[in-house]
Specification:
Layout (H helix, E strand, L loop, with lengths): L5 E5 L9 H11 L6 E5 L2 H10 L4 E4 L16 H7 L3 E4 L2 H6 L4 H13 L3 E6 L3 H5 L3 H12 L10 E5 L13 H19 L7 E5 L7 H5 L6 E4 L6 H15 L2
Helix pairs in contact: 1-2, 1-10, 5-7, 7-8
The structure holds 2-phosphoglycolic acid.
Length: about 250
């Protein structure tokens, strides 16, 4: 792994202020585990407070609107996230794609809005189980990348890709290490096609049922530069198990 493994916790729609103690504990431990880069994406309501509690880890959001501002009741712009203390935003998570009908074009517009506001973007892609069974997983993911990744000057430097097979999210099921490696190699090729040489440096995270007991093997798969973690990021105890595994790999 060229860069430090990047471990990002996605709290989804979980967390009230009572959970800030978990963020604090994760931050304190991250101080001892500098071989991994750690970040949390709490719900909007906790971004500012998490940024104040945590000094070392990255703090980001789980979505943003593509517009800079305007009559969009209930939405949040990338500039507002930055103002609240976010450094990055996750876009195109499969739950957003499914629950809110977000297309690749919408995801790309959000990613470009994020970069325009000075945030970095984690762009999520991943196939459904039916698509994998039909042998189309790599083609589906490649098309999602072509449609969702931001382009323009310097975009590659501000982007991270998260490969999250839809059928592995929150299910306790994961692809084999070989399948993860094959998909990440395919993603790398697509990144180089889109970004040229700069595509070689983009970090590719794996996400979907990453736990302390499978993190080491998933993180060691080909072209895996870190993990996007949902359920196991909700307690410091579980999340730290994953960060420790990543930090150990980062030693090599
Ligand atoms: P999970 O979620 O770790 O709970 O499977 C991953 C994600 O959706 O980012």
């Amino acid at each position: 792994m060229a860069l430090r493994p990047y471990i990002v916790g996605n709290w989804k729609m979980h967390g009230t202020r009572a959970m800030l103690s978990e963020a604090r504990a994760i931050d304190r431990a991250a101080e001892r585990l500098l071989k991994a880069e750690v970040a949390l994406a709490p719900p909007y309501t906790l971004i500012h407070a998490t940024r104040k509690e945590a000094t070392l880890i990255g703090v980001g959001a789980q979505d943003c609107h593509a517009a800079e501002g305007g009559a969009h009741t209930g939405d949040i712009s990338a500039a507002m996230l930055k103002d609240a203390g976010a450094g990055f935003v996750i876009v195109g998570h499969s739950e957003r794609r499914a629950d809110h009908g977000e297309t690749d074009a919408v995801v790309k517009a959000k990613a470009e809005a994020a970069l325009g506001a000075g945030l970095s973007a984690i762009v999520c892609v991943g196939e459904t189980e039916a698509e994998r069974d039909a042998g189309k997983a790599e083609a589906v993911v490649s098309a999602q990348l072509e449609g969702s990744l931001p382009t323009g000057d310097g975009a590659a430097e501000k982007v991270t890709v998260a490969y999250e097979p839809v059928w592995a999210i929150g299910t306790g099921r994961t692809p084999t290490v070989e399948d993860v490696g094959a998909m990440h190699r395919s993603i790398r090729q697509t990144l180089e096609r889109i970004y040229g040489e700069a595509g070689a440096q983009v970090r590719i995270l794996y996400g979907g049922s990453v736990k302390p007991d499978n993190a080491a093997e998933l993180l060691a798969a080909d072209e895996v530069g870190g993990a996007l973690v949902g359920g196991a990021s909700l307690t410091a105890e579980q999340f730290l198990g994953i960060i420790v595994a990543a930090a150990e790999l980062g030693e090599h």
